[in-house]
Amino acid sequence: MIVEDERRIAAYVKRGLEEHGYAVDAVHSGQDALYWAGSTPYDMILLDILLPAPNGLAVCRELRRQGSRVPILMLTARGAVDERVAGLDAGADDYLAKPFSLKELLARMRALTRRSDGGDGSPLLTLADLTMDTTTRRVTRAGDEITLTSKEYAVLECFLREPERVLTREAIAEHVWSYDVHHESNVVDVYIRNLRRKVDDGRERKLLQTVRGAGYRLTERGVGR
């Protein structure tokens, strides 16, 4: 979720992140931010400080008071050292000064994601002979590079972050698409078929499996679909 009252900036960031495979909700006030954060399990929040009441600092403090551990990247004015310090003290995980490049924003988000996973900071996600480098966005299987669209990459990342877990269509859509499209359940099925063709076709071990009546999972066990 991006929380930014300057709608032009919010639209620019939303479009840029969506082009890189992220599902993004944009809100424009502190009140809306608290509402959506309380009802949606976001992977990250991009939070501007200067918002209609409550401001970004108050939003951040309230989320932490409620026990939320979602990574928060605070957006601050360039050169405003006091704002940066206040943001970190309020519970933000990092900050980015405006104006910023989309490239830098993406790098900060990748770093925060690795940190919040609780791992050792490695950008590699691996299952069997399938590997994803979240820094370079390079995907390989048994050393062979696999070319994916941004959405195919996002769906596969969903599975690689929770291997062996059965994911419902709704869970996949919620993490990969915005709310305006994720109710179209057949969209998920289309992307699963595309991933199977690229990841499993022609290989003895089929990693991407259907769990009838439940959803899909990425697993090392078995060869069936």
Provide a descriptive summary of the structure in words:
The structure is a single chain. The chain is an alpha/beta fold and 225 residues long. It has two domains: 2-116, Response regulator (Rossmann fold); 124-218, Arc Repressor Mutant, subunit A (Orthogonal Bundle), CATH 1.10.10.10. The protein has eight helices and eleven strands. It has a five-stranded parallel sheet with strand order 2-1-3-4-5, with helices on both faces. The longest helix is centred in the middle third of the chain and has 15 residues, at 102-116. The two termini are 34 Å apart. The mean pLDDT is 86.
Roughly how many Å apart are the termini? 34 Å
Number of structural domains: 2
Sketch the topology as an H/E string, one letter per element.
EHEHEHEHEHEEEEHHHEE
- Gross morphology is elongated
Give me the CATH fold name of the largest domain. Answer: Rossmann fold
> CATH class of the largest domain, anyone?
Alpha Beta
Average pLDDT works out at 86
Rounded to the nearest angstrom, the radius of gyration is 19 Å
> Main sheet: which strands, in order across?
2-1-3-4-5
